[in-house]
Write the structure tokens for this entry.
Amino acid sequence: MPPPQRAPSDCGCDKPSKLEKRGKLNPKPIHQRTILRRMDAERLRAILLQLPHVTETMQWGANLVFWVGDKAIGGKMFALVDLDGEGGPVISYAAGPERFAEQVELEGVIPAPYLARAHWIAIERWDVFRAREWQQELTAAHSIVFAKLPKRVLQTLSLPLKEQKRLIAQQRLLASSKPAARPKKRAKKT
């Protein structure tokens, strides 16, 4: 039998009661525990940044893009969070070919626009998964993309952190110094 729960109205958050100290009463009030189960962009960001070799960038407007390995050294994106919230999916991520069809069958899950052919799915609402399921899904997305990284990126990621940062800085400097690509001129038909 689960321990008794406190009602939201008697939220003595400051001091634990005697029952809480003995482990007979759940220490968090009901309203706090339910809030912790809901996912949002900030909680998701905290989960993703704990995974190995993850970096984030802001791209394509208000989209937070998470990469396995830095983009500058050839890393690949594995999740994209829409911070606008203008009616589109809240997050898209790599599901892999095995899970793609299964996931798309769930309510609130659709093939990701522009990325469905790469087996990405888009989630329309934060309440589609529980917090633990979100963590499992995104850890799996990270693993799928990590397994597809080129050898040179994996070699860079295996270097000490100081050396990685130096290489990333070099690549960014090199990329910023390159002139913008000009479109090729087409030969005129005569």
